[in-house]
Automatic annotation (TrEMBL):
The species this protein was found in: Agrilus planipennis
Residues annotated as domain ZW10 C-terminal helical: 561-705
Gene symbol of the encoding locus: LOC108742765
Domain Centromere/kinetochore protein zw10 N-terminal: 27-112
Entry keywords, A to Z: Cell cycle, Cell division, Centromere, Chromosome, Cytoplasm, Kinetochore, Mitosis
Upper lineage: Eukaryota, Metazoa, Ecdysozoa, Arthropoda, Hexapoda
Protein name per the record: Centromere/kinetochore protein zw10 homolog
Subcellular location: Chromosome, Centromere, Kinetochore; Cytoplasm
Chain ranges of the Centromere/kinetochore protein zw10 middle domain: 199-387
Length: 706
């Protein structure tokens, strides 16, 4: 080894020895500084007995120690680069010690820096430098969230967070006051007159800085959202729905946008709506277009908040009303489309829409489809009004068909009464189908779909709007049933007529589902009402003395009263229904009700084991009322047996109540007589036992009946 090398090696060893001595000294100084900082922070934030003037001294100490550590770190790294094997292990150990000391120093320094930021926040707030104030708040929150807190200083950290939150709240309150001093939103109503005002002060730096600071604190600025809500609800919507007056006032301190309107039914013209909305956004573009960050401004913030609602509302309350209602208006609609395009261009100018956005022209460009949709909506509204009309205004339709059931595929519709409103509805639907034949396929499909929807809703709309009548008035329920079946009949005939004329239908059936649904709906409602009548009759009979026949010994007027009441109820149905229902529907329905009535009367008698002669005689007399008045319920009294299945059986029962054993024997005629044709042997025997005492003659008759 040369002399020079020996000298350099000795110098390096000496320098390393110095580092070994220096590191423990710095570590001790860092430990002392840490204790001093903890003690200081505890006094400031926990005991509150020391003012924060010492912070700069501690921060300076921490900075000096950090610089000393950097010098030692650089020296070690220089030696490591020389790659001297003998001292490499020593250098690595020293490097780790420096890193440990640096971590401790960094942690305690962050507390000092945080404390310093709190002081800056207070100073900036006093000087009303709100942007710088918010920057310090954001930095402080970022730093405190990164702290690894030791147990001994948790309370200090908690209190620093508390003070930071307190300072942030104070800043927000100050910004709120500035906002309120520069912007006023007011709505007042006196009688039928409403006045809504937006007042914005002249441009000033304090307000501009406050808005930027607000945006830095929270991208969702609550106060700007308030403006957005006021703008859409108290300015734009009134413009769309009312005839309004706008006045912009300059009072040398502020610009006020004043909108006034009086509640009325007058609908504003679309040209006026466009003009007023442009005034709104021109006002905002001129007086409320403050920079927030990058290319973002208060105007863009507000526009982004209301854009979706604005577009939806303008289409709903303005543009849809411009859609033509007839073909003459449709031919002239290009002028309106031009006005819409100009309106949208101005909104681009005022930054309401981005360059590529054109929601109004995009929506209105397919005017033919919108026109058809509007017509279909009008058709539907007319149809619903017809469905809500009174059902009792009726007319006769169809041809007289006797003794032939009404089937779904019948070619003739039976003579009956239907509501006038149904004929009007059919005329409306026929006009729609004619329109579909003349229209392009896309429009034709929409019109046909509208007719199907109208027919789909008929049952539910009518039953909902006439619910009480359909539950209580027999005429109404019969008309509803006829209406449904008449509609279905017409739909079947239209299937044959229009399937070939409306091209896109091809092999599909135009009204297959609607026809079947209408029949089912009408039949179900009518059947439910008829079943209710049967239950009422059964309830009347149940509450009479018919259930106590075995215990009755003397005549009882209660039975005759109940039977007469049931007959009167059916006669009322006859009065109402015989001119409404078709021949077959009427007779079959009355036949079903009367058959149930007779069956119930027979059940009461056939269940009795012992019947006194007086009661038997009274029953016979009472049942003769049924025999006399029952046939008159039907269109042709002689046809009662066609519609009342138990009629012959009921007549034989009445015969037995007044007959002798000999007469009953003759009537039975060894099982070949009329009595045997309608009654079972067990029933005849049971009634004989109930009517007659146990004698040889009764026994002989019972023996013959088998």
């Amino acid at each position: 080894m040369s002399f020079l090398s020996e000298v350099l090696s000795a110098a390096e060893k000496t320098e390393i020895e110095i580092i070994k001595t220096k590191i423990p000294e710095l570590s001790q100084e860092i430990t002392d500084l840490k204790s001093e900082i903890w003690h200081y922070m505890n006094n400031v934030y926990n005991k509150f007995n020391e003012r924060p003037q010492k912070n700069n001294i501690l921060l300076k100490k921490a900075t000096t120690l950090s610089e000393d550590l950097d010098v030692l770190r650089n020296t070690i790294e220089e030696h490591l680069r020389k790659d001297i094997p003998k001292i490499e292990n020593d250098l690595s150990t020293l490097s780790l010690e420096i890193e440990e000391a640096d971590i401790i120093l960094s942690a305690v320094s962050k507390f000092v820096v945080l404390h310093d930021r709190l002081m800056n926040i207070r100073n900036f707030q006093e000087q009303k430098q709100y942007i710088e104030c918010v920057k310090e708040i954001q930095s402080a929150y970022s730093e405190i969230n990164e702290l690894e807190v030791e147990e001994e200083v948790k309370r200090v950290t908690t209190n620093i967070r508390r003070d930071l939150l307190s300072e942030r709240t104070l800043v927000c309150e100050a910004l709120d006051i500035i906002f309120g001093d520069n912007i006023l939103l007011n709505s007042s109503c006196v009688g039928s007159k409403t006045e809504n005002t937006i007042r914005i002060n002249y441009e000033n730096n304090t307000f501009k800085d406050a808005l930027v600071a607000f945006h830095m604190l929270d991208s969702k600025i609550f106060l700007l959202q308030q403006i957005s809500n006021f703008l859409i609800n108290e300015v734009c919507l009134p413009i769309l729905q009312n005839v309004v007056f706008i006045n912009i006032v300059d009072d040398q301190k502020s610009y006020s946008f004043v909108l006034t309107y009086t509640a009325s039914t007058e609908v504003p013209k679309y040209q006026d709506i466009f003009s007023h909305l442009l005034k709104v956004f021109q006002y905002l573009h001129t007086h409320f277009n403050y920079h927030l960050t990058g290319d973002y401004s208060t105007l863009l913030y507000v526009v982004n908040e209301i854009k979706s609602s604005l577009v939806e509302s303008v289409i709903k309350y303005c543009l849809l009303s411009t859609v033509p209602s007839n073909e003459v208006e449709l031919e002239k609609y290009d002028e309106i489309l031009t006005d819409i395009s100009k309106f949208e261009s101005q909104l681009h100018k005022y930054s309401v829409f981005e360059e590529k956005e054109s929601p109004f022209t995009d929506y209105m460009k397919d005017i033919d489809k919108l026109y058809v949709n509007k017509k279909c909506q009008e058709y539907t509204e007319i149809a619903i009004k017809l469905m809500k009309k009174d059902l009792h205004e009726m007319v006769e339709t169809g041809i007289l068909i006797k003794n032939k059931p009404l089937l779904e595929d019948a070619h003739d519709f039976p003579k009956c009464s239907v509501s006038k409103s149904v004929l009007e509805l059919l005329k409306l639907i026929e006009n729609m189908l004619q329109k579909a034949m003349e229209s392009p396929e896309v429009c034709a499909k929409r019109i046909v779909s509208a007719t199907q929807n109208i027919l789909n809703m008929y049952g539910s709309v009518v039953s909902e709007n006439h619910q009480k009548m359909l539950q209580t008035i027999p005429q109404q329920v019969a008309l509803f049933k006829n209406n449904c079946w008449h509609l279905a009949y017409k739909l079947d005939s239209w299937n044959e007529l229009y399937n070939k004329k409306i091209k896109f239908i091809n092999d599909a059936t135009l009204f297959k589902d609607q026809s079947h649904q209408l029949r089912c709906f009408g039949a179900d409602v009518f059947r439910h009402y008829v079943q209710g009548q049967v239950q009422q009759i059964e309830e009347i009979l149940k509450n009479s003395s018919l259930g106590e026949l075995q215990t009755l010994s003397n005549s009882n007027n209660n039975i005759e009263k109940a039977v007469r009441q049931c007959i009167r109820q059916q006669e009322l149905l006859r009065t109402v229904w015989h001119k409404v229902l078709s021949y077959n529907d009427y007779n079959e329905t009355l036949g079903y009700i009367f058959n149930s009535f007779c069956t119930k009367l027979m059940e009461f008698v056939l269940l009795v084991e012992d019947l006194s002669s007086d009661i038997a005689e009274q029953l016979a007399d009472t049942f003769k009322i049924v025999q006399t008045r029952g046939p008159k319920l039907f269109t042709e009294p002689k046809e009662i047996n066609m519609y009342v299945e138990v009629w012959y059986r009921f007549n034989e029962l009445v015969f037995m109540l007044n007959a002798s054993l000999v007469e009953i024997n003759d009537r039975w005629a060894d099982g070949k007589g009329p009595l045997a044709l309608v009654m079972k042997p067990e029933e005849v025997k049971r009634l004989v036992r109930a009517l007659f005492q146990n004698t040889d003659r009764r026994a002989a008759l019972l023996a013959k009946i088998s």
